[in-house]
């Protein structure tokens, strides 16, 4: 993918500069992103984002010696990874998954006593925790459907599956989230020794 991005640069000197920058610093960028993220899930995508940001800074980067360039690349990689984490955390904080057939009716904001509101908040947190424990594919399909409000056809195209399979995957993902919620409730209800 980075070769496509570099190929899109119009100036041949800038293309050559970015190719060399990528060859010299791609391992450092990946290492820096991994240090911040502590998981390998999004390292490739974030590394590409770093180099896309660096394309805008080619004139500045040309003025640096190798030590300053390395420091600037590391700083950019750290910033991209930290921004990704912040964005992901905000999304997760405001994410609501469910469907009428499963748990969403039970989780509508209650009007009533403080106890009911507290109970409702606990259910939302349990649902959020359950969804976060799902495999990535199930999280993605729920995110596409309920947060991005994509159609089944759009989801099928994004995930490279048939449109008929989307409903099946959604049903499985909702059931898995509900099961994880129920398991969490049973764990919390069990007496502590």
UniProtKB/TrEMBL annotation:
Classification via Pfam families: Sigma70_r2 (PF04542), Sigma70_r4_2 (PF08281)
Protein name: Sigma-70, region 4
Domain RNA polymerase sigma factor 70 region 4 type stretches: 125-175
Top-level division of the source organism's lineage: Bacteria
Domain RNA polymerase sigma-70 region: 21-88
Organism: Caproicibacter fermentans
UniProt family annotation: Belongs to the sigma-70 factor family. ECF subfamily.
Keyword entries, A-Z: Sigma factor, Transcription, Transcription regulation
One GO biological process term: DNA-templated transcription initiation
GO molecular function: DNA binding; sigma factor activity
Keyword Protein biosynthesis among UniProt keywords: no
InterPro entries in the cross-refs: RNA_pol_sigma-70-like (IPR039425), RNA_pol_sigma-70_dom (IPR014284), RNA_pol_sigma70_r2 (IPR007627), RNA_pol_sigma70_r4_t2 (IPR013249), RNA_pol_sigma_r2 (IPR013325), RNA_pol_sigma_r3/r4-like (IPR013324), WH-like_DNA-bd_sf (IPR036388)
PANTHER family referenced in this protein's UniProt entry, alphabetically: RNA POLYMERASE ECF-TYPE SIGMA FACTO, RNA POLYMERASE SIGMA FACTOR
Gene3D superfamilies: 1.10.1740.10, Winged helix-like DNA-binding domain superfamily/Winged helix DNA-binding domain (1.10.10.10)
